[in-house]
């Protein structure tokens, strides 16, 4: 029983009842969440940028950092817990990808992150069943492995579920 | 309803903040002069035994991974760069400001320093990656100081976070500056500007503190620098390093494009470099990262 805290560009998974998988203060970063009902495994990646082509070395060192390398890395990790290698049966949820107010296209980094994640998920035939993306506030995400329940929080707002 | 700060009270708060050390103050003056060189910085550090020791300790910390220790102050300063030396001097004498718990924004102690350091690194990266004609070292220093006003008004905002968020949700055109003004009587840029005056900061730094959320209102001669910090601040917040309840609840001043040219790909490079540089610098400021 413990807390698995993921920093920027980290990814992780757990099937231990009582564990929480958590990430703090998502801004434009997007949290990709995989829930596998069959093996009762929870996985998450904290994605910072859409495309690994800007720095291949960073992508090798921290695949969770970029959308296009995070999804395959998280899937490979989930496979070690007995999940289907192409993600069959996995429930996908997304959150984060916020913007500042009055943003222009260049600063829509959150939107580009979410789109890049959806694109790579699509190539596996996967898609998000629910999402809480955009807006202009930070989100902290906590997933309980026992219940598969995702709780989001943000200063000054009551907690909500995804 | 919370207590509104009066002009008189703000002056009292400003006076309760320790002055900058003589070295930090002189370093900021020198760093703002366009024609200074690194030896000017070295000479100022050399005259302050405490600062010299701190600089040597940090350059030889594990975070920089030097094979051979650096023993001379001029080599240490040229290795670290002006911006890091200035940061060390500021951090050393103003921890009361930078390490303050921002309870009014629901943030723990140390969060303000991290946000400021991210903003500083990002402002410098914006200048370097865009090739804009702005002093990148000064952009860093200005980034470090831009939010000092939050430390002044935070206590007065204690318990207001839910009200602030409700206000901003009800009136979508308002940003967190409006909420601060309504709930405490002063927003953090106005409060910070008062401290900038008390600290006798150079004009360009005071201008950044006053206008970093709406650089188009800054004096023309300093406007490009203010825009660099404005973008650095936004990049820090988007990267998950805001100061709590106010994070991303400010407007992007889109006229930055008149001064700074960056596209989506350059922005991605900047954000990645900020993560890498932050890890290195943050580690070096902490004693746990020191060798032997």
From TrEMBL, chain A:
| Molecular function terms, GO-annotated | protein-glutamine glutaminase activity
Q: Which UniProt keywords apply?
A: Chemotaxis, Hydrolase
* Role played: Probably deamidates glutamine residues to glutamate on methyl-accepting chemotaxis receptors (MCPs), playing an important role in chemotaxis.
Family under the similarity heading = Belongs to the CheD family.
> Which SUPFAM superfamilies does the protein's record reference?
CNF1/YfiH-like putative cysteine hydrolases (SSF64438)
Q: What is this enzyme's catalytic activity, as reactions?
A: L-glutaminyl-[protein] + H2O = L-glutamyl-[protein] + NH4(+)
Query: Which Pfam families does the UniProt entry name for this protein?
Result: CheD
Q: In the record, what lineage is assigned to the organism producing the protein?
A: Bacteria, Pseudomonadati, Thermodesulfobacteriota, Desulfuromonadia, Desulfuromonadales
> Which is a GO BP term held by this UniProt record?
chemotaxis
Keyword Lyase applies: no
Question: Under which EC number(s) is this enzyme classified?
Answer: 3.5.1.44
**What is the protein name stated in its UniProt record?**
Probable chemoreceptor glutamine deamidase CheD
Top-level taxon in the UniProt lineage: Bacteria
TrEMBL record, chain B:
* Taxonomic classification: Bacteria, Pseudomonadati, Thermodesulfobacteriota, Desulfuromonadia, Desulfuromonadales
Natural source organism: Desulfuromusa kysingii
What is the protein named?
HDIG domain-containing protein
Note the Gene3D superfamilies from the entry: Hypothetical protein af1432
**InterPro entries in the record:** HD/PDEase_dom, HD_domain, HDIG_dom, HDOD, RNase_Y/CdgJ
UniProt domain HD: residue ranges: 112-238
At the top level of its lineage, which domain of life is listed? Answer: Bacteria
NCBIfam families, alphabetized = HDIG
Which CDD domains would you find in this protein's record? Answer: HDc
* Ranges of residues in domain HDOD: 17-215
């Amino acid at each position: 029983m413990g807390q698995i805290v993921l920093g920027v560009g980290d990814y992780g998974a757990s099937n231990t009842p009582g564990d929480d998988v958590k990430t703090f203060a998502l801004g434009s970063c997007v949290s990709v969440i995989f829930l596998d009902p069959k093996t009762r495994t929870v996985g998450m990646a904290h994605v910072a940028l859409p495309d690994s082509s800007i720095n291949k070395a960073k992508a090798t060192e921290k695949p969770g950092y970029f959308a296009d390398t995070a999804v395959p890395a998280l899937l490979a990790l989930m496979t070690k817990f007995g999940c289907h290698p192409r993600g069959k049966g996995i429930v996908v949820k997304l959150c984060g990808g916020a913007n500042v107010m009055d943003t222009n296209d260049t600063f829509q980094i959150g939107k580009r992150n979410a789109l890049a994640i959806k694109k790579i998920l699509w190539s596996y035939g996967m898609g998000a069943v629910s999402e809480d993306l955009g807006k202009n506030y930070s989100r902290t995400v906590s997933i309980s492995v026992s219940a598969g329940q995702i709780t989001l929080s943000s200063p000054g707002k009551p907690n909500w579920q995804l | 309803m919370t207590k509104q700060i009066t002009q008189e009270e703000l002056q009292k708060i400003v006076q309760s903040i320790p002055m900058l050390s003589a070295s930090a103050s002189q370093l900021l003056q020198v760093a703002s002069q366009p024609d200074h060189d690194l030896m000017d910085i070295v000479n100022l550090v050399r005259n302050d035994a405490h600062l010299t020791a701190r600089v040597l300790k940090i350059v030889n910390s594990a975070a920089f991974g030097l094979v051979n220790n650096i023993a001379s102050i001029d080599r240490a300063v040229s290795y670290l760069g002006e911006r890091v030396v200035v940061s060390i001097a500021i951090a050393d004498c103003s921890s009361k400001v930078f390490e303050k718990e921002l309870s009014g924004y629901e943030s723990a102690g140390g969060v303000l320093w991290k946000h400021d350091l991210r903003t500083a690194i990002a402002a410098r990266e914006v200048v370097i990656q865009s090739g804009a004609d702005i002093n990148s070292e000064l952009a860093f220093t200005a980034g470090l100081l831009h939010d000092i006003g939050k430390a002044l008004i935070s206590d007065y905002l204690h318990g207001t976070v839910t009200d602030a968020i409700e206000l901003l949700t009800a009136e979508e055109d308002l940003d967190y500056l409006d909420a601060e003004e309504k709930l405490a009587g002063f927003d953090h840029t106005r409060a910070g500007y008062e401290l900038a005056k008390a600290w006798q900061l150079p004009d360009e730094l005071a201008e950044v503190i006053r206008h970093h959320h709406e650089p188009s209102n800054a004096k023309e001669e300093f406007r490009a620098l203010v825009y660099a910090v404005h973008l650095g601040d936004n990049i820090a917040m988007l990267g998950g390093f805001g100061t709590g309840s106010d994070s991303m609840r400010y407007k992007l001043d889109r006229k930055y494009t008149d001064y700074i040219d960056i596209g989506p790909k350059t922005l991605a490079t900047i954000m990645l470099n900020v993560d890498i540089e932050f890890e290195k610098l943050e580690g070096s400021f902490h004693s746990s990262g020191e060798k032997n």
